[in-house]
Amino acid sequence: MVRDLLVPGCINITEQKGRVQIFWSEEQLLVFFKGYDKDGDGRLTKDESKAAFDKLGSRCSTFRTWRARCHADTNSKDRSILNVDDLVKYALKRGYKL
Fold first, then answer.
1. Are 29 and 7 in contact (CB under 8 A)?
2. CA nearest 55: which of 26, 35, 77, 84?
3. Nearest CA to 98 among 51, 55, 64, 63?
4. DSSP string, 55-79
5. What would the CATH number be for the domain defined by 12-94?
6. Are the C-beta atoms of 80 and 62 separated by less than 8 Å?
7. Which residue intervals define the domain EF-hand in the entry (predicted)?
8. Angle between helices 84-94 and 61-71 (to 10 degrees)
């Protein structure tokens, strides 16, 4: 998993059963997903999204990309391209850990 985006004051730490869990913050996820936006338009293609979910440690990045598209804003006519903000919201709901 990716651990190089720790920003002081922007992480969510919880303790469960004696283990500390550090979750991605909204700011960290925004920077992370923007790193996969090759053309800088604020949207990711299916392949870019899949690569990002792979790097997040998702066991099935193709499924996660599909689910993110299902949860994304439906105003877009092209469902194969995902808005970075929608991806961040979805990843926060999924609770990815650093």
1. no
2. 35
3. 55
4. HHT-S-HHHHHHHHHHHS-TT-S-T
5. 1.10.238.10
6. no
7. 24-59
8. 110
